[in-house]
Write a structure and sequence with these properties.
Elements: H1 2-25, E1 28-30, H2 32-42, H3 44-64, E2 70-79, E3 91-104, H4 108-174, H5 180-215, E4 223-225, H6 250-271, E5 276-288, E6 301-312, H7 320-387, H8 392-426
Parallel strand pairs: 1-4
Antiparallel strand pairs: 2-3, 3-5, 5-6
Length: about 425
């Protein structure tokens, strides 16, 4: 039996290894476009915006029914004791039905419908604005994951170079060619790089969790991204003049539609100066104790109807209605100023977005040149160390310069990608 178990141990180990390999291979790899699509489908803010649209549509459906007649029913049971039962029936039930039809209300019904329609349009624009913000946050979070991954690669590459340098310096110290403090400096840099590697891995985990929350990914951080910070990083020329009105932004259209809603409300307040006409038709019946029908003393049932036409004419209210209209006009003026101010701010945002993107492109160019120079400096320092013309401290300094230059390249390229996403956002593109 023991021999049989030993024979099966290798196959069991192979099975476990195979399962781990399948789990690693099953990790989801996401592209930027896939993340954007997941955000559109699963993001909670977009779902909330859609629910607000549904609420506005329900309000519009209610407003569309305004002006139509309504039917109401009621039933009343009564009992009279002495001495009222001597002149009134002792008991009875009186059901009734009434129909009410507004005839004229100064145009308020149509204005309510128009206002409700604007409410739907505002919520639809609000969803567009929310979607734009979510997609921008998605791209920014995505490139933060890429950035963390690039820093991990850099720390691992730096670790290999520092290990090789430590080995060379340690050999030279053993041979009596260099000083011990050069070896210790190299070890300190190894420890610092190991800490940087740990920080980079932690940053990648947090960046993945942030991205997963935005795109609604239930798997958490169990995914990887397919992109790297490569590609073209071009300088772009602004397509819009500063004076052009940025009506392409959803928030501008929201303010415009809100202004239209305020103007509708002004008309509603002015409608309060006009008369209103209402027509109603009511039918009633009663049955109970004998005598409930006054036209027939012995009858225990009665049925009748009546109609009413009411006219309400506003005459005098000490100027309250006029003050409400004036208040609304002030509100409209404030809304117009706010719209004008926001348009000017968006024009500045667009110009600033172009400037930030082009600054990133210039930074990439300069940091790339610096990296080439730092790489050449590191190579020459290593050669001079081997020839004995410099000490280990000089090589470690060159290694630090190379690491900083590489970090600058990563920062510049990620910054460009994020600024590129921001430019799409301020231009109203998705």
């Amino acid at each position: 039996m023991i021999i049989s178990i030993k024979k099966h141990i290798p196959s069991a180990l192979l099975l476990v290894i195979g399962l781990f390999a399948q789990t690693a291979d099953a990790q989801q790899i996401l592209t930027l476009e896939q993340c954007r699509q997941l955000a559109l489908e699963r993001n909670n803010n977009i779902k909330l915006a859609q629910q607000n649209i549904n609420v506005a549509k329900s309000q519009k459906a209610q407003a569309d029914l305004g002006g139509k007649f309504t039917i109401d029913g009621s039933a009343t049971a009564f009992h009279f004791g002495k001495p009222l039962n001597r002149v009134l029936p002792s008991y009875g039930v009186s059901p009734s039905v009434s129909i009410n039809q507004p005839v004229y209300s100064g145009g308020k019904t149509d204005l309510a419908k128009a206002s409700a329609l604007k409410g739907v349009e505002i919520q639809e624009e609000q969803k567009e604005l929310t979607t734009s913000e979510v997609l921008y946050n998605t791209e920014r979070a995505y490139w933060q994951v890429v950035s963390a991954g690039e820093r991990i690669k850099l720390a691992e590459q730096n670790q290999k170079q520092l290990n090789a340098l430590f080995e060379d310096l340690n050999n030279q110290f053993t041979a009596g060619i260099t000083y011990k403090n050069d070896v210790l400096r190299s070890k300190v840099q190894q420890n610092a790089n190991e800490l940087n590697l740990t920080k980079a891995k932690d940053a990648e985990l947090l960046a993945k969790l942030n991205l997963a929350q935005i795109i609604g990914l239930a798997e958490g951080s169990n995914f990887s991204v397919s992109d790297s910070i490569s590609g073209s990083f071009n300088v772009l020329k602004p397509r819009l003049a500063f004076e052009e009105v940025p009506d392409f932004r959803s928030e501008v259209r929201i303010l415009q539609k809100s202004l239209e809603t305020e103007k509708i409300q002004e008309k509603v307040l002015k409608a309060d100066f006009k008369p209103s006409v209402n027509f109603s038709l009511s039918g009633l019946s009663a049955f109970g104790d004998a005598g409930i029908n006054p036209s027939s003393a012995g009858n225990n049932f009665m049925a009748s109807y009546y109609t009413m036409l009411s006219l309400n004419i506003p005459i005098f209210d000490w100027g309250k209605r006029k003050q409400k209209v004036q208040q609304q006009q002030f509100r409209i003026s404030a809304q117009e100023i706010q719209l004008k101010e926001r348009k000017e701010q968006i024009s500045l945002e667009v110009q600033q977005a172009y400037m930030q993107l082009n600054q990133s492109a210039r930074r990439i160019e300069l940091s790339g040149v610096s990296l080439e120079q730092a790489d050449e400096n590191l190579r020459l320092s290593k050669d001079r160390l081997k020839s004995g013309t410099i000490v280990g401290k000089d090589v470690l300094e060159a290694q630090t310069l190379w690491l900083q230059a590489y970090n600058d390249v990563i920062d510049a390229k990620v910054e460009y990608k994020i600024n590129e996403a921001n430019l799409k956002r301020v231009l109203g593109n998705k």
